[in-house]
Amino acid sequence: MRTCLLLRLHGFPRFCIMGRRLSGPHASVGALLNPFNNLRGLMRFNTAIYVVLLLLVLTVGAYARFALLDLRPMHGDEANQAVKFITLLEDGVYHYDPNEHHGPTLYYAALLPAWLQGIYDGASLDEVTLRLTPAIFGILTLLLIPLLRPVLGRVGVVVAMLLLATSPAMVYYSRYFVQETLLLTLTMGALVLAWRYLHRPTLAAALGLGACLGLMHATKETCILFFGALALAALTIYLVTPGNHRLQSLPKAVPPKHLLAMLLTALGLSVLLFSAFFTYPRGILDSVLTYVDYAARAEGEGSAAIHEQPWYYYLSLLLYTQREVGPRWSEAGILLLGVLGMLAAWWPSKRADAATHPARPYLRFLALYTLLLTLFFSVIPYKTPWNLLGFHLGFILLSGFACQWLWQCSRHWAWRSACGVLIALITGHLAWQSHLANTRYPADPRNPYVYAHTSTAFMRFVARVGDIQAVHPEPENMLVRVMQPDGDYWPIPWYLRGVGQVGYHHDLPEQADADIIIADMALMEPLEARLAGDYQMEATSLRPGVLRLVFIERALWDRFMEDRR
């Protein structure tokens, strides 16, 4: 019986019934009576279908990352980064801080979305403009995956893109004004360029790889873990691969000019950014000395102890989480497919090897790199949920390869249909969780990716400050004092950036009176004893379980209440 296609690139479609080819007026009857032939035809996954699927997945990923970017309150880390970015935006000044804020890449990258919108000052800046930068980098990560088509195959590329586009962790942190998504995109770029160089060593690939590595270093200090995993995985694969195949895993001898170009590009970009384009040379030294501080922090010393978690913390977040009476969260489908992809990379089947042999050493490198990076982040006591993105990307790429491998293991339409249903169920569940995470639970502790996040109740206080300022006789001179002994006042500086005068105090000042006072609960009695004026007192929640006192000058409060009537 001849296989019949539902769609042909040229001419009219032909169909068959019980082995007889039908054309002309009988073709439509044949199509209705023999639908399985049509299904088999579609399952050939031709170029047109491949391109259409890529565009659809890209659309889904873009919508998930760009829609309602201002729905979630600013996290304290986001606000911290935003205030530092305002200094660069307004004054053109950037100084690397080896203890906080991480590298300069995020700040310089965020300039473009601001400039394109005509924003040159902090007062005009908003959450959407800031979060556009990680969202754009999230899309760039998606666009890089098709460059690994020789490794993953067409099915693998589509599946990997679909998982990345819908993963709740990936989507949630692609909408966060922090460095993680930029680091992820640069890592993806390094993985792609490493493959391109191993497949065909060129100076351009070496320069691109060096650029990615240099920018990774200029993005976040945890890049050192990525570098360690990449180097160990590459060295291991080189040593265990038979000699006659080593050129497919790691060049036996990299041309000196390529190696030199890669190193100089990486070093040059890192130095350029850390020195703020040679205006702050101290940043170059600090970019190295910072690892002393981060080594202590990784061990959970000092204030970092509050972030200490067990070794299985990241895996438990991805496998299954339910907090209180909230929804159940799981990305176990990605982990399980990723493990299958690791096994398939080492599977000795001749049939599988026949389709993927040129890329098999690279796939084994990718599997080992993912395992090593997972191990590195798991053994470090200091843990925050966004750190899982690095190795989660490896599991997503390996999941794509696993599906390609399953697709090639059997060409029967029933088997391929089952694979398609499985992927649809997994991605549908992921997409639904992403919707919940970013629209219904964007700042709710029941969302596993919410970590020490600003409470939505705090936004009512922000609105109250705006209302009080509106009735103030001199709005530009309204005085607000924030009193917090441990300096834990973020994201207050971001939300008060439009207030005329704001003072931040670690101790009670001699003159404590102000139009509005925000203070730690522990300061209530000594503060009340020091205040000379009359105040309306209330409380607000900075974060779940973290309360702050609010004192509003009585005359302003009365004017505000009168205005409401």
Explain the overall architecture:
- It is a single chain.
- 58% of the residues lie in helices and 7% in strands.
- It has helices at residues 27-33, 35-42, 47-66, 76-91, 105-116, 127-144, 149-166, 168-173, 180-199, 203-217, 223-240, 256-274, 282-298, 313-319, 332-346, 350-356, 360-379, 389-409, 413-440, 458-471, 492-495, 524-530, 554-564, and strands at 15-17, 20-22, 479-483, 501-505, 516-520, 535-543, 546-553.
- The chain is globular, with a radius of gyration of 28 Å.
- The longest helix is centred in the last third of the chain and has 28 residues, at 413-440.
- The chain starts with 14 loop residues before the first strand and ends with a helix.
- α10 packs parallel to α12 (256-274).
- It is built from 23 helices and 7 strands.
- Mean pLDDT is 87; it is low at 1-43, 247-251 and 351-356.
- It folds into 3 domains: 1-42, no CATH class; 47-440, no CATH class; 458-564.
- With 565 residues, the protein is α/β, with parallel strands linked by helices.
Compact description:
With 565 residues, this protein is of the alpha/beta class.
